[in-house]
Amino acid sequence: MIVQRVGLNALMDAMIARLTSAFRQFEPACYDIPPRSGFTYHNPYLGLLEWMPVMRRGAEVAIKVVGYHPANPGSNGLPTILSTISTYDTHSGHLIGLADATFLTALRTGAASAIASRALMHPDSRVVGLIGAGAQAVAQLHALSRVIEIDQVMVYDSNPAVTRTFSQRADFLGLEVSPVEAHDLPRLVSEADVLCTATSVDIGDGEVFPDRDLKPHLHVNAVGADFPGKFEVPLTLLQRSFVCPDFPEQALKEGECQRLGLDQIGASLVEVIQQPERYAYARQTTSVFDSTGWALEDQIALQMLLDYAGELGLGTPLELESASDDPRNPYHFARNGHSHHNSHS
Questions:
Q1: Would 333 be classed as within a structural domain?
Q2: In terms of Cα–Cα distance, which of 292, 313, 299, 293 is closest to 99?
Q3: Does residue 324 surpass a pLDDT of 80?
Q4: Of 176, 206, 325, 332, which residue is 20 to 30 A from 231 by alpha carbon distance?
Q5: Whose CA is closest to 272, among 86, 12, 23, 34?
Q6: Which CATH number do you get for residue 162?
Q7: CB 292 within 8 A of CB 247
């Protein structure tokens, strides 16, 4: 309902603006943001359930629980990523809000790539390449279309059927999309100014494109690395590029940065946004945004949704927590209007 009332473009613009503002104003001392943790399993296919917490000190805690199941679209008819997010008042522990985060995750991930691209890409960038044409590719292209005048879009997925349907899923953008087959992947990579990789490549099976004939100013938004041992970008490209992680501590464990030494990693996205002049030189070099996902982005996304819900009078108030008239008696609610029986053995 919020999407219908506000509009997709307005929501994406608001997400980009709010994240940019949050990055500019970010003070590490005001937050606790540990790297995400979770469970990995095979049931029967590879799956992951993980939690991404963030605390804004003196205010609230947000916790996103996200499931990553790459076999979902084919085996269960569900998105690869399913997610929910909740937020809590740190004065009382009271649950403030609960929302689906599948859409919000796509929105904020796309917005983060747009922010990184705007800061690091060559000013004349007009050609976008997409490797991986699933759900996240739609949000990536949508977000980029809000910050780039796009002349050409090329898309490739290892599943030809997914490549073919991408144009229809992204038709609301009014962009001409050229599907690319496997033998033409090197051409896609060589012609792109901005390249987004959002794949479900298996652990140990990357790299997903060749480091060959690339533009000297190519900017890559690497979105798919989310496991130790999983990566998308050629190591040779990483080693000569300005590598910008969203969350360095996490990227070192499961992003593209896990393959690099500390001296090979550039500034974080927050540092680039806070000191744009210092890192302006990266626009003339190859650059890689190592996007592993940051809980701060989830918190900002949920707050945006709650703000819109409040403005539009949307959402459903629920009392999920047990809070009786007597805070010291957990059974107080059960004692009113009910008879009580004792049983003896």
A1: no
A2: 299
A3: no
A4: 176
A5: 23
A6: 3.40.50.720
A7: yes
